[in-house]
Write a structure and sequence with these properties.
mainly alpha; three-stranded antiparallel β-sheet; three-stranded mixed β-sheet; 14 helices; 8 strands; 70% helix; elongated
Length: 506
């Protein structure tokens, strides 16, 4: 009996103990859950406040940008209004002066009419008297006088014509030089020189081994995904990226910089970073295209045209960045069009798009001018833009003044000092080739390349080459230079033929 009671008591004590332990655990779990909920609520409140602050900052930034743009537009409108008012006042003054001049001319016409009547009457009397004295009719005297005047003045007329033509050419050349010089001075674009390889700095030389990876798997993966050669040599804390495609080189550079900053370098991570770099570069290409269009003052371009313009940021011609070159051509052609009362907006548009075909020359067959015409025709560009693209390389004749201005601006941008890179050896070789081509024709005595290879002067033997043959020779020399040489801008061919005739007066 006592054992049974003891057993019951022990059972009750064990039950109570287990119940107490269970309740303690429940209270502890509830307390932990309450703390987790409070922490989550605090963290949510902090993130909410952070999001609100970021949203306010973004709203403030957008508002500030909008206000800045509105101020610029308001200033532009005020400037246009002032110009319009000034133009209206000038037009009113011109109208008043014209009316005054018209009244004066009316009075003078009346006086001239009276004077003509008096002169006609006197002339009739004198003519009758002259016919009586000379025994010739008026028609016979006129014919005789005209023959004498024609014979005596023919030589003088030829000299006057030559003088007028020479003065006109000099004035045209002077005016053209003034316009070009003023446009270049107002453009004054800045440029930077880029190299054909990219160098990525490393935090330490140990990073080179991590980039190479076990048995070279990391470097092989990166080279295979980007198509770029990684040169890891003895240069301290640096890796060189080499590729003919600057876009691929830029993708590899961005990806490698991200991998170095992240520190985790393995094939899967390399693939992820290369894909991310490609997306970033596409965004950067669009931004570069938009920046170039804004800088050139060209609006309404198709998004694909913007993207192709952005690709020119990574293309070079003789070391000259093609996007900067296109912007400079747009600004120069627009300024010259403004000075010549042509269409500045159309000139800037044609200048910006004149080399757009070079963005696809690595992917599409054909010349860059033909590719550019196809692109612009696809996106419904004006015929003047298509004509400027084909004319600036002589593929067809110019049908508008804007095409001629774009070709001139292209030559100016390519030929200005420092625009394009050329080694001394290549420079000397180009001059030698110019002189060799010129002296290869029959009748040429000497040839000199001058003005840094922008002009070649050909001296011919006058006994072998006449004036007509000299014109043909200049065309043939220019054509042979176009066929056999590659050069920026244009080369002027001048053929000199001197004939001396000596006589003695005794």
């Amino acid at each position: 009996m006592i054992g049974l009671v003891a057993g019951l008591i022990a059972f009750l004590l064990g039950y109570l103990l287990r119940r107490y332990v269970a309740e303690a655990r429940i209270r502890s779990a509830e307390e932990a859950a309450r703390r987790i909920i409070e922490d989550a609520q605090k963290e949510a409140e902090a993130k909410k406040r952070e999001a609100i602050v970021e949203a306010k900052d973004e709203a403030f930034r957008l508002k500030r940008e909008a206000e800045h743009e509105i101020r610029e537009q308001r200033a532009e409108l005020q400037r246009l209004e002032r110009r319009l008012v000034q133009r209206e006042e000038s037009q009113d003054r011109k109208t008043e002066a014209f009316e005054q001049r018209e009244r004066t001319l009316t009075e003078k016409e009346a006086e001239l009419a009276r004077g003509r009547d008096e002169v006609a009457s006197a002339f009739a009397k004198h003519q009758a008297e002259l016919e009586r004295i000379s025994g010739l009719t008026a028609e016979q005297a006129r014919e005789q006088l005209l023959r004498q005047v024609e014979e005596s003045s023919r030589g003088d007329a030829l000299q006057i014509i030559k003088k007028i033509e020479a003065e006109a050419r000099e004035e045209a050349d002077r005016r053209a030089r003034e316009i070009i010089a003023l446009a270049i001075q107002r453009c004054a674009a800045d440029h930077t020189a880029d190299v054909t390889v990219s160098v990525v700095a490393l935090p330490n030389d140990d990073m080179k081994g991590r980039i190479i990876g076990r048995e070279g798997r990391n470097i092989r993966t990166l080279e295979g995904l980007t198509g770029v050669d990684l040169i890891i040599d003895d240069t301290p804390e640096a890796v060189t990226l080499s590729s003919f495609d600057p876009i691929r080189r830029e993708i590899a550079k961005i990806a490698l910089e991200k991998l170095i900053a992240d520190g985790r370098i393995h094939p899967a991570r390399i693939e992820e970073m290369v894909e991310k770099s490609q997306r970033e570069l596409e965004q950067r290409i669009r931004e570069e295209g938009e920046r170039a269009a804004f800088e050139a003052g060209v609006h309404g371009l198709h998004p694909e045209e913007i993207k192709l313009l952005g690709r020119l940021r990574f293309r070079y011609s003789y070391g000259q960045n093609l996007l900067q070159h296109s912007v400079e051509v747009a600004l120069l052609s627009g300024l010259m069009a403004q000075l010549l009362d042509a269409n500045p907006q159309l000139s800037r548009r044609a200048g910006l798009l004149h080399d757009i075909g070079k963005a696809l020359t690595h992917e599409v067959e054909g010349t860059h001018s033909a590719i550019g015409v196809d692109i612009c025709r696809r996106y419904h560009e004006p015929p003047e833009v298509l004509n400027a693209i084909t004319y600036h390389h002589g593929d067809e004749e110019a049908r508008c003044v804007e095409a001629i201005l774009v070709a001139a601006a292209d030559a100016i941008s390519a030929s200005r000092p420092g625009a394009r890179k050329e080694t001394a050896e290549m420079y000397v070789k180009r001059l030698e080739n110019l002189e060799r081509i010129a002296t290869s024709f029959t009748g040429v005595e000497k040839a000199y390349a001058i003005q840094a290879g922008r002009e070649v002067r050909v001296i011919v033997r006058p006994t072998d080459i006449d004036d007509t043959a000299a014109q043909n020779l200049a065309r043939e020399v220019a054509k042979k230079i176009e066929d056999e040489m590659e050069y920026p801008g244009q080369i002027k061919v001048t053929v000199l033929r001197e004939t001396r005739v000596i006589e003695y007066a005794r």
